[in-house]
Each structure stands twice: as structure tokens, then as C-alpha cells.
Amino acid sequence: MSECGDPGPQFVSIEGGRYCYRRGGEGRVVLVLHGLTDSSRLVWREFFCRFEKEYTIVAMDLRGHGDSEKPEDGYAPADQARLVAAFIDKLGLDRPVLLGHSLGGIIAAKFAILFPQRLIGLVICDSPLGAGFWKNLRLAARLPLKGVAMVGTTMIPLLGRFMFGLRSPRTMRLLLKSLRLFHDPSHITEVLIEDKMKGTYEAVTQSLWHTVVFENLFKDLDCISVPTLIIHGSYDSLVPLDLAKRAASKIPNSRLVLIEKAGHFPMIEQPNLFNQTVSQFLSTLE
Fold this sequence. Notes:
The chain is an alpha/beta fold. It has helices spanning 45-51, 77-91, 103-114, 133-140, 145-154, 159-165, 169-178, 190-196, 201-214, 241-250, 266-269, 271-283; strands at 9-14, 17-24, 29-33, 56-60, 97-101, 121-125, 228-233, 254-259.
């Protein structure tokens, strides 16, 4: 029997792979995409509880994450966006609202650029939207040094794979604290760590190389034609607020909302404020 916030996993075959998702509620579809090394199991629990009586909420485990297929490649934003399009087709989701957090927001923005007629609205939450190699490097230089050093080591060939194989719940907790992902570190729970341990080496490193290092979404943000909400945690030390402000100035028909007393995961730290913000946005859509 499912509990509030977790309707239970389901599986669908797409492009020869098996992908996990959770679905609940009735009404207009809101498709939500998690961030790097997360899954559909934990991040969206409060979101399901709040919205599944008004909307159909579908949460997907991205490629290489959670209980979804874990191939060795296919982690570029365009590849992930095309996978989301195939997922939408497979489940028959007609013009959903697409909500993406962090890596999921990058994929959601890329989807809106590639498939503008397939969405009715877009929500981007605390996402490090790439602006090209050099600007991305300058952004990385502003992140917490210890956390960047730990992540950077993982991206070194051979050594990175070896170090990734040695990771443990303890080192994962240390990394999350070093990156200061939460304003309140008590939100770093065993369930969160368990989810993050499921992300594969290929998913983590290729996603970082493609999105955080090389991707330049800013050059195409003005092509996004659907109403867009940008949400940002006021204490997010991973994604600077000025990046969200620049995205809001670039995307037509967009609005930026700051969630106070929240870090990189406002939907976990301030679920009521987060859900209220999304609810107001959803009410404006046709």
C-alpha cells in the first residue's frame, strides 16, 4: 500500500531500456525531473502530497539514476531531453508542465528549447544553466572549495573511477555537507544518501562534463516560448543567485521567485513555500 508522497514505483520500456517512474493523481500533468544522483523516490514526496488531488504528478528516474536504466552514455542534455520526449509519448502525457530541479532543470530547459510545442509551462529550480566553457569554469571557481575538490577528483580518468568505487554513505554525507547543499544539514538523511549512492560513475561524470563544463544553454534561452517560473533557494551555495537572475532576464515570459531559508533543495527545506509558489504559477496556465 502506497503512502502519501510515494505512489510506488512503476516501470516502462523506452529505447530498449527500463525506466522507473512514480505517478499519482488526476488532471493536468506535471512531469517532474530530479537532480544529479537523486531519484523520484524522495525529492518530490511533499510535492506529491500537495498536488496529487488536483493534478497528475509524474516523477521520472533519469537515465543512470535511481532504478532506471544505467547505460554507459547518453547523458548530454539533448540526449536526456529526447529520452523525456520518448517517455512522454510512451505514457501519453499531453502537453505537460515540466518541472526540473538542478540537473533536471537543465534537461527541462533543453526540452523546452527543442520541443517548444510539447509543453504548456516550464519550472526551473536551482539549476546551473550552462553559459559556455569559460563562464562555467568561473562559476565552478565560486563553489565551496572542499566540495569542488572532491567532485573534481571523480572526473579525472582512471583515478576518478577508482575513487568513485570507494565511495561510502559516510563519504557521501561528507560531500553533501562540503557542498553546503542544505541550509539545514539535518535534511541529509539516510534515505537521501541511499538514493545518491545509486547514481553510476558514467551518469555522474558525463552529466557534469556535458552540463556543468561544456553546455551553453544561455545562447538559446530566448527561444523558450512557454510561461516559465524560475525558483531559487536564498541560501543556495551551489548555484549563484545572479545566474538565476540572468536566466530570468533571458527567458521571455519568465518570473523569478526566491525561497527564503532554503539551500539547493527548496522543495525539501521549505516545501510549503515551494508548493505555494508552484501552485500560483500553475493557476495562471490555460
